Amino acid sequence: TITPAPAVVVNGPENSTSAACSYANQDAATAAFNAWLAGFTVSGGCAPVGSYGQPSAPAYCGGTVSVTYNVTDKCYEGSSITSPFTITPAPAVEVNAPENSTSAACSYANQDAATAAFNAWLAGFTVSGGCAAVGSYGQPSAPAYCGGTTTVTFNVSDRCYEGTTIVRTFTITPAPAVVVNGPENST
To answer: How confident is the model at residue 66 (pLDDT cuts 50, 70, 90)?
Structure first.
């Protein structure tokens, strides 16, 4: 009498979907992928063999890898399980910047008024989306209210974003030159 081998039991991990922002870098995504791969197992049979080749983790900023686990055993006709590991991309980074501004010196009562207008204009530089997108323009100062230009460079970065640099100017044009006339001396 030949006793049949125990039944071959094949297991695979659930389909995995995670967000790009949950990974600090590619190493973290690869570690999660490798832990997920450990969910492919086979037991029973005579000496079952399971193989999924050498899959690589998807890019940590977004992608999918489908893994097919093929199982064979000498008394088993064979089977396979396919499961995807997906990293969804971060929301798109949205960068906004005001248009270049040009105004006349005569429209400002004093430097405080010019500075208030400049600060309101600076508020037009914004960034949203991504994982934790950051925008910075340093600490620019308003130009002199009697005339001048301040150039602002807005740098945006995020871990899954190439980066953006936007340059804008805030200009206050000087008032027309004051012309003083007086009569000639008269005797």
So the answer is: very high
Strands 49-51 and 63-73: antiparallel
CA distance 62 to 187: 90
* R_g of the chain computed on alpha carbons: 33
Q: Which of left, alpha, beta for 70 (phi over 0: left; psi -120 to 50: alpha)?
A: beta
Residues 6+ apart with CB under 8 A from 167: 151, 152, 153, 154
> pLDDT band for position 1 (50/70/90)?
confident
- Which residues, at least 6 apart from 127, have a Cβ–Cβ distance to it below 8 Å? 93, 94, 95, 96, 133, 134, 135, 156
Torsions phi, psi for 181 (to 5 deg):
-120, 145
Q: What is the DSSP letter of 168?
A: E
Measured CA to CA, the distance from residue 65 to residue 50 in angstroms comes to 18
Residue 157 one-letter amino acid: S
> What gap in Å lies between CA 27 and CA 8, rounded to an integer?
34
For residue 127, the model assigns a pLDDT of 97
Q: What is the pLDDT of residues 96-142, one digit of tens each?
A: 999 999 999 999 999 999 999 999 999 999 999 999 899 999 999 99
SS3 of 125, please?
Answer: coil
167 three-state secondary structure: strand
